[in-house]
Amino acid sequence: GSILEPKERSMEPRAVSEEEMTLTVASSPAGSQLFGYVGIEAVLDQMKIKTMKTGFEFNIMVVGQSGLGKSTMVNTLFKSKVSRKASQPSQEERIPKTVQLHSITHVIEEKGVKMKLTVTDTPGFGDQINNENCWDPIIKYINEQYERYLREEILITRKRKIPDTRVHGCVYFVPPTGHWLRPLDLEFMRRLSKIVNVVPVIAKADTLTLEERAEFKQRIQEDLKNHAISVYPQEDFDQDPDDRALNDRIREKIPFAVVGADQEHQVNGKRVLGRKTKWGIIEVENPAHCEFPLLRDLLIRSHLQDLKDITHNVHYESYRVRRLNESNHP
């Protein structure tokens, strides 16, 4: 009896302690429910604290003819004087003979979060009688920033944080003609959309009636579709169904009809940003007056990180592959 007793006991299932059961369930592929507080959510707080300490970089470029309100629009976006222009420019400064690029860098802080903002203006673009190849200096500048980042990245002993001067977004200002896009607009966006995120906007939209604005937007969308120009947000890069639904709604509104103003006015007892006219005050942040809030949400509140991700993972990656292939096959 004493010899058979252990064998009989071995036929019964072994009692598993609660601790062992928890480990077994947690390590199984299907076991995603935790039986107690672990603290994984604290990673978000760690990331937030680190970002608030180090800050982040955001580089934006504005392109368009003179007099379309590019500097005013940038100041309106960030509610500060981040884009400066000469108060009394000379005759030579008003219309540069060639396209020049001016970059201004500021550090903006809001609620403890620091952002190093670089605004690149392109005076002289489209202001000449002959605008042939006026986009070449802009393409050269964008590629130079990719090259600068690549040289830092391939160093044997590289910096812990590589300075990012790459252009994350290019806002292209379309003149409010009410007709079709000009050949200059089409050629610029066709070339630039391959190397940078291009966001077209209709400048000074208060010069158009609501009917003219809707018709002009429809014509621009048809032009972009007929010429296979992919502006931001690109449909090819939508992976998540929720992101695709949001971006579809944004693509229906592009190009945004915007009005810029960096002066405050009193409206119904409130101080609002707007432009004063004979007929009243155009409130910049009122969706019923213009689509500036949609542009601000796209560039800052909802898609800022996505702009940086696509710049790094798509545009910069294609430039890096091309440059490394050239160095391997001289």
Question: Gyration radius, to the nearest Å?
Answer: 27 Å
Structural class by sheet pairing and helices: alpha/beta
Helix content: 40-55%
CATH superfamily, called what? P-loop containing nucleotide triphosphate hydrolases
Beta-strand segment tally: 9
Which CATH class? Alpha Beta
InterPro entries: G_SEPTIN_dom, P-loop_NTPase, Septin
Protein name: SEP12 protein
GO molecular function, one term: GTP binding
Keywords: Cell cycle, Cell division, Cytoplasm, Cytoskeleton, GTP-binding, Nucleotide-binding
List keywords for this structure.
single chain, about 325 residues, alpha/beta, Rossmann fold, six-stranded mixed sheet, three-stranded antiparallel sheet, 11 helices, 9 strands, globular, disordered N terminus
Compile the SSE list and pairings:
Layout: H1 4-10, H2 18-27, H3 42-54, E1 56-63, H4 70-78, H5 91-94, E2 102-110, E3 113-121, H6 136-153, E4 169-174, H7 183-192, E5 198-202, H8 210-226, H9 241-253, E6 256-257, E7 264-267, E8 270-277, E9 280-283, H10 292-302, H11 304-328
Parallel strand pairs: 1-3, 1-4, 4-5, 5-6
Antiparallel strand pairs: 2-3, 7-8, 8-9
Helix pairs in contact: 10-11
Q: Can you give a write-up of this model?
A:
With 330 residues, this protein is an alpha/beta fold. The protein has a single domain (44-63, 71-82, 97-122, 137-153, 163-328), classed as Rossmann fold (3-Layer(aba) Sandwich), CATH 3.40.50.300. Helix content is 42%, strand content 17%. It contains eleven helices and nine strands. Strands 2-3-1-4-5-6 form a six-stranded mixed β-sheet, sandwiched between helices. Strand 8 and strand 9 (280-283) form a beta hairpin. Helix 10 (292-302) crosses helix 11 (304-328). The longest helix is centred in the last third of the chain and has 25 residues, at 304-328. The protein starts with a helix and ends with a helix. Mean pLDDT is 83; it is low at 1-11 and 19-30.
